[in-house]
Design brief:
Blueprint (H helix, E strand, L loop, with lengths): L1 H10 L1 H32 L10 E8 L13 H16 L4 E8 L9 E2 L2 E3 L2 E2 L5 E5 L3 H4 L10 H7 L5 E5 L4 H4 L10 E4 L7 E7 L15 E5 L10 E6 L7 H12 L5 E8 H8 L1 H34 L2 H9 L4 H32 L13 H31 L3 H7 L1
Parallel strand pairs: 6-10, 7-9
Antiparallel strand pairs: 1-11, 1-12, 2-6, 2-11, 3-6, 4-5, 4-8, 7-10, 8-9
């Protein structure tokens, strides 16, 4: 059957040429869509480097002189001690697992500070995020080291004021070097070339957000000095897994009696689930719009191919009847028609792959990991494109072919 099928395809080369051309164009367009969806989905599903489950942001406020409880003439040192005391009380609260302070440090923040991290001739990218934190901050968001360091071990390291942590990819893009190999080495931070800091551990990459690549997300963590303590710092807490229910309401109910320290009080409590949703709302809306547009385009491609193969199969009712009259079964005839469509698709896929390869190499498709092309990505997207079109062909051939099978061969040949 294979030899006869190939011979028939050759004999009908004029009509098949138009079909192959259509499949070629559809394959290229569909590959571009599949490649875009592959990139965006891959980026979204990359490890984030942190965990916001059961985490909350506690916003601190200060009484004004209009309040009857206002304590006048507080010194800056007293204000810093109030912040320290509030943090300590929250750390000892039974339903809280960990609590820490940070400056422009929590995930889905949007407000960041930069830092330079220098080792010998190696210099970090200019958009390296600086996170000044208290030791337990890493326990709140469960940062982990590349050599298996746990959040608890990392927190212990940050108790030394001359230690710091940084993401493993800090020098990867520019110099092709992992930071893990430099653990324990002295570094210069913040542009200070007189004092050195010790790299205590290399961190698993901490992404800026769900729609940002790990490849170019750079960050470093250093202990924050108590001299910087103020109500403007970010107070983040992680509650125990079974204590999420009504945690915000319970904390607010206790805040006036237990968590009023001097003029300092708890002004608001927000879940990081809400913070994440609000921070990424614009990106999520854009992603949903792209999904809708891509879905609409895919539907049109599907209907176009379906119509083409449906019409082609309907026009061949007499040929189907002849094959049945010569002893062909419904199954064998249907398989023959489907295989014919798949062979034409395979022929069209070869030049389509060349076009796809050129589009990727001239950087007209989406970027991921600093490139528009990698062999694994290319082969996966081409294969997925082939499977999608193959499914369209199977449906476009199979349904009308099944209907044509119900017609008696003599009736179909008489009509012809």
């Amino acid at each position: 059957m294979n030899t006869k099928l190939i011979t028939q395809i050759k004999n009908e080369w004029r009509s098949n040429l138009w079909l192959v051309t259509e499949l070629l164009l559809v394959s290229v367009v569909l590959w571009y869509i599949v490649d875009y969806m592959y990139v965006k989905t891959s980026i979204y599903n990359q490890p984030k480097g942190f965990d916001i489950s059961h985490c909350y942001l506690v916003q601190m406020g200060c009484l004004t002189d209009k309040s009857p409880d206002f304590i006048p003439n507080q010194t800056e040192e007293e204000k810093r001690q109030d912040v320290k005391e509030l943090l300590s009380r929250l750390q000892h609260r039974p339903d809280i697992e960990a609590a820490g302070l940070g400056q422009n440090s929590y995930p889905y923040n949007g407000g960041n500070s930069g830092a330079s991290v220098v080792y010998d001739t190696l210099r970090s990218p200019g958009w390296t995020v600086r996170r000044l934190v208290t030791p337990d901050f890493v326990r709140v968001f469960r940062y982990c080291g590349t050599r298996g360091e746990t959040p608890e071990q990392l927190a212990e390291m940050l108790k030394d004021s001359r230690n710091f942590l940084a993401s493993d990819n800090l020098y990867k893009q520019r110099y092709g070097r992992d930071l893990t190999s430099l653990v324990g080495k002295p570094f210069y931070l913040f542009g200070d070339t007189t004092n050195t800091w010790n790299l205590a551990a290399s961190l698993q990459v901490i992404r800026y957000g769900d729609y940002f690549e790990a490849w170019n997300s750079y960050s470093m963590l250093a202990p924050i000095s108590e001299a910087w303590y103020s109500k403007n710092l970010e107070l983040c807490v992680r509650v125990k897994e079974d204590q999420d229910q009504d945690f915000i309401a319970r904390l607010k109910a206790d805040s006036e009696k237990q968590y009023r320290v001097g003029n300092l009080f708890i002004a608001d409590v927000r879940s990081f689930v809400d913070i994440r949703r609000n921070y990424q709302q614009a990106e999520t809306n854009t992603w949903n719009s792209y999904l809708f547009g891509m879905g609409f385009l895919l539907l049109n491609i599907f209907l176009g191919l379906l119509g083409t193969f449906w019409f082609r199969t309907q026009q061949r009712r007499s040929e189907i009847a002849l094959m049945k009259s010569l002893g062909g079964t419904d199954r064998s005839v249907c398989i023959r028609l489907v295989v014919e469509g798949l062979l034409l698709l395979a022929v069209a896929t070869v030049p389509a792959m060349l076009i796809d390869w050129n589009l990727a190499n001239v950087e007209l498709n989406s970027w991921m990991d600093g490139s528009t092309f990698s062999w694994s990505r290319f082969l996966i997207t081409v294969l997925f494109t082939f499977i999608l079109i193959a499914l369209m062909i199977v449906v476009g051939v199979g349904i009308p072919a099944r209907k044509a099978m119900k017609v008696q061969p003599a009736e179909a040949l008489h009509d012809e």
